[in-house]
Each structure stands twice: as C-alpha cells, then as structure tokens.
C-alpha cells in the first residue's frame, strides 16, 4: 500500500517496524518517528495537545490535512496546465517525476493521474507502466488513454469493438421494434437526435482531437462493412464525423475530405429532401474530386450508402418524378433527377468499390432512366386511368378491368439492377401510403424476385409493415391477405428468419383485422421450428396470447393515424388527364 515511499526518502511502516524492533525505549522511538515524519510546522507541535483534549485522533487530523492539501495540489495542477507559462509542462513533468513512484498508493494516485491527464505528451516509460498495469490503465483519464491508444491499435480496437457491436444491436432492435407505425419508424429520429446516442458520444470522447484515432475508427468501420456488408456501419461513419462537427473539432473536420459533403447531406437528411441548391452543392463536391485523390470516393460512397442518406435520395427521386409527371416531361431531361440517381448509384456501389479498391464512380445504366422509369410511370398512368374510369357515368364506362400484370421492363430491372430495385421498393411504399389496394395487389407479387433479395431486407420490411397498417381494414379480405402473405411474405419466411419476425410483428398489430379462418391457417404456417431464435418464439407466443385474449373480449375501435408526414407539398398544376403520384 505504501510502495514507493522509500524511493522518495520517506519512512513507511516497514521502517517503523524495524525501529521498534531494535530500540530499547519504544515510546521515545515513536515520539521521534512522529517528529521526523509529521507535518514540519514548528507552531503546530504546541497546538496538537489541544486536539488530544478534544478526543480527536491524530490520524483523523492528519488525514483531513492530507485531503485538503491533495485537493489544493490537484487544483494547482489544473491551473498550471491551463496557464500561459511557457515552462508549465516542464513544471508538471518535474512534479510527475516526484510523484510517479507513489502511483499505486490510493491516497496519492489521484494527484499522479491529474498530472498525467494534463500533460500533452506523457514520457513513454510512464505510459508503458500505466498500460502494463490493468488497475492503473482502468483509472487513468481518457486523455492519457488516447496517448496509449495512438501507438497501440490492437488495444484501441479492444476498447472500440464492444461499442461497435452495441451500435449494430441498437440499430437492429429499432428495425424489429414492437412499435408499428408509418409516423414513428426507423427514419423518424433527426440526425442531431441520433448523434446523442451513447455509442456516438463515447466514440467522440475517445477520439477527442486525435486525428490518428479518428483514422483508426474509420478503418475499423471500413473493415467491418467489408466483412459483414452491414450498412449501419456507414451510418456510424457519417454520424461520427457530424458529432465532431457539432463540437467544432476543426483539427479533424478540416482534414476529412468528406466533411463539407457530409455536412450538406446531413441538412438534406434533416429535411428528408434534396433541394435544388443543395443538389448543386453536392454535385460540386463530386465533380471536384481531383485526379490522384479518387480514394475519397470510397468514403463518399460509404456516406451515401448510409440508409438515412439513401432514404432521403429515393424520397427526393419520387418527388422529382411527381413533378415530371405533372409537367409531362421525360426523366432523362431532368438534371436534378440524374444527379440524385448518380448519388444513389454511388452509395449502392460502396461495398464493391471498397472491396475492389477501384475508386471510380459506377456508371449508371442509362436504361434505368430510359426503360425502367417509364415502365414505372406507366403503372401510375394505368392506375390513374382506372380511377378516372370508375368516376364516369355508367353509360360512358368501358369494360376496363384493373390490370394485374406489370410491364416486363419493370420486373426485369427490379431483378437485375440495384438502383432500379431501390426505386421500385419505395414506389411500393408510396402506393401503400396512398392506401391504394389495387395497385399494391398488382405490385407485391413482383417483389418475390428482386435484386439481391432487397425486398426481404430488414429496412424495407420494417417500412412496409408500418405502411400496411394504413390498410388494416383490407386484411378482412381473403384476396388481400393472400397477396400479402401467400404472394409475398410467406414465399421466403422459412429460409429467412428476419421475414418470419417481421410477419409476426405485423400480425401482433393487425391480428384482430385478419379474416379469422385465414388467421388460423397463418398460425399453423408460422409456428416456429425448433432451431429458430428466441425472438421468433417470443413473438409467436405473444401473438398466441393476444388471440386467446381476443376470443374472450372484443378488440377496441381503431384510431386511424394522421398522415401528416412533415413533407413539403409540391404545388403543381394538374388536369383531369394528368396522372399524379402526390406524396
């Protein structure tokens, strides 16, 4: 406990033991020891007997003086470090030399740690001592740990790894949340709110102003993204940079070439829309990538691969298509649309670019613009034509029935092109938002086969299940249930456990709306296999309990959710012959 005192020429317990062992008059020896090692203040000696009269033990007195002096010393260390004296760090190093031998003494340790914390460059020998001792490493300040980490990537990786795992667990928990709503979904929190998350704040603190540590974290994120293809690492890459931006850490922001691009995109994500002015800014950054600096495209593609960025880009594309429809213009004639598609394509190609280390913007297949988008628009026109037809007087109606098939180009590009597939999926969400049952029944079967099974990804299923709550009354129809379940969800639930979970999540909210006979069949089909996860079993049990409770008491009346989505309305002139897909 008192290791290090002899090095400083101060007697410890062992010295007292030796003195008492070898002396002939123990009381005199104790007095002598107290005189030599007590507080060396002549006027104090005559005052100490007064404390004895009050029954105050000497230990209590010395301890209180010691605590007071320690606090004063620690305050003084902070004042010296924050001062303007050129030799301030020299003074602190001198104090460190004197106090470091006592670093393992609990009463002195806070002083040593305070000195270490305020030294911008701790002597390497001292750092190694702290790093080698688990207890010392645990209690030292993050400022000291940063100096240790910057030369020990493996140790830093051990510290960061649990935080990165926690981040992914939190994101996946949000996607499988028991809340099912179109208004409060995965994309609802604002960027600033997300940056207040525990993991982002901890990583920001661990990095401080240290560029080397920031680069290490980015390298960890790239490696994990490559290893797992998990897009949430892309979200964290953007959130971390913007968290440092919020704190004005110019030492890092000024050297990250993605900073201004990410800042501009962050403002678009906040608005859930890329307006013309910001679109031109973003284009300027992309066009400004100089020869020899193409590697920055890898990081830009990661930032655009963030699901929050992707969501904003596709929502903006949908708004753009709406305007083009109202103006009867072609997609290829819109520079804004082409830029949005360019950014979406760059984000979708992030993994391939980082994996191949070929830093070149992927070429956008022009047929997505000339074939796929017109095919998608023809679906909108079909729907509009049918709606107008239904409003005509009976004598003017034709025998037109609602189309059930989709254009070949639409199906083909859903399966073969990831940018087209992303737009197709968001169009399905848009149709669900409009509560357009006919169009949804036409589109859902096409999602069974999509590029890389994107329609069975967690983000799309999270959004789709939330949107389907708007059509809750239609689940009373066997035809609609058959399209949603037999025609889409149940085609892959046995091979993809996440689909099983999302289906059960949705049924927990809509079970009272589903046709009872169909619900019975569904429960048999969805019964969890033995080797499935606990989450699936738990959801199934909750659903069973809900159904049992429902048999005993009738369900409460539904409250229709408000559809105020906080999107800016696009004012466009429309006529009876103009198909619309208003958002």
Automatic annotation (TrEMBL):
GO terms for biological process: negative regulation of transcription elongation by RNA polymerase II. It comes from the Eukaryota. Keywords: Elongation factor, Protein biosynthesis. One of its GO terms (cellular component) is NELF complex. GO terms for molecular function: translation elongation factor activity. Residues 569-583 have a biased composition (Low complexity). InterPro entries: COBRA1. Pfam families: COBRA1. Residues 548-583 are annotated as: Disordered. This is Negative elongation factor B.
């Amino acid at each position: 406990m008192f290791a290090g005192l002899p090095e400083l020429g101060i007697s410890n317990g062992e010295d007292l033991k030796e003195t008492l062992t070898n002396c002939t008059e123990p009381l005199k020896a104790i007095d002598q020891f107290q005189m030599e090692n007590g507080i060396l203040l002549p006027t104090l000696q005559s005052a100490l007997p007064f404390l004895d009269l009050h029954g105050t033990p000497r230990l209590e007195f010395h301890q209180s003086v010691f605590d007071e002096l320690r606090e004063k010393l620690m305050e003084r260390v902070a004042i010296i470090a924050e001062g303007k004296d050129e030799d301030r760090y020299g003074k602190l190093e001198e104090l460190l030399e004197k106090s470091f031998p006592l670093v393992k003494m609990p009463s002195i340790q806070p002083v040593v740690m305070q000195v270490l914390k305020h030294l911008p460059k701790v002597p390497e020998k001292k750092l190694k001592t702290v790093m080698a001792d688990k207890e010392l490493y645990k209690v030292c300040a993050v400022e000291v740990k940063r100096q240790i980490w910057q030369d020990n990537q493996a140790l830093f990786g051990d510290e960061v790894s649990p935080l990165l795992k926690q981040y992914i667990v939190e994101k996946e928990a949000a996607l499988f949340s028991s809340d099912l709503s179109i208004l409060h979904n995965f994309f609802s929190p604002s960027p600033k709110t997300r940056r207040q998350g525990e993991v982002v704040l901890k990583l920001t603190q661990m990095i401080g102003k240290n560029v080397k540590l920031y680069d290490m974290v980015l390298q960890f994120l790239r490696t994990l993204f490559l290893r797992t293809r998990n897009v949430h690492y892309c979200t964290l890459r953007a959130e971390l940079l913007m968290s440092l931006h919020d704190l004005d850490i110019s030492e890092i922001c000024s050297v990250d070439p993605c900073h201004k691009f990410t800042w501009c995109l962050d403002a678009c994500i906040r608005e859930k829309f890329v307006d013309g002015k910001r679109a031109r800014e973003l284009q300027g950054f992309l066009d400004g990538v100089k020869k020899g600096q193409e590697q920055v495209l890898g990081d830009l593609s990661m930032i655009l691969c963030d699901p929050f960025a992707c969501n904003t880009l596709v929502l903006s594309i949908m708004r753009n298509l709406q305007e083009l429809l109202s103006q009867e213009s072609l997609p290829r004639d819109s520079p804004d649309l082409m830029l949005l598609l360019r950014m979406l394509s760059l984000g979708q190609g992030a993994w391939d670019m980082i994996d191949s280390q070929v830093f070149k913007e992927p070429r956008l297949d022009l047929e997505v613009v000339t074939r796929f988008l017109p095919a998608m628009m023809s679906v909108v026109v079909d729907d509009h034509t049918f709606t107008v037809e239904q409003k005509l007087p009976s004598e003017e109606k034709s025998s037109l029935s609602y189309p059930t098939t989709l254009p070949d180009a639409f199906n083909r590009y859903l399966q073969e092109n990831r940018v087209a597939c992303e737009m197709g999926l968001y169009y399905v969400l848009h149709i669900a938002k409009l509560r357009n049952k006919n169009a949804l029944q036409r589109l859902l079967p096409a999602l069974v086969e999509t590029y890389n099974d994107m329609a069975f990804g967690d983000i799309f299923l999270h959004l789709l299940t939330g949107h389907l709550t708007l059509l809750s009354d239609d689940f009373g129809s066997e035809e609609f249930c058959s399209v949603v379940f037999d025609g889409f969800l149940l085609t892959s639930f046995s091979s993809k456990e996440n689909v099983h979970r999302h289906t059960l999540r949705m049924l927990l909210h809509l079970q009272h709306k589903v046709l009872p006979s169909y619900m019975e069949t569904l429960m048999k089909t969805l019964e969890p296999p033995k080797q499935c996860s606990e989450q699936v079993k738990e959801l199934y049990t909750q659903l069973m309990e809900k159904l049992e409770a429902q048999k005993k008491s009738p369900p409460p009346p539904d409250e229709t959710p408000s559809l105020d989505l906080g999107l800016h309305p696009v004012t466009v002139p429309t006529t009876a012959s103009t198909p619309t897909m208003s958002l």
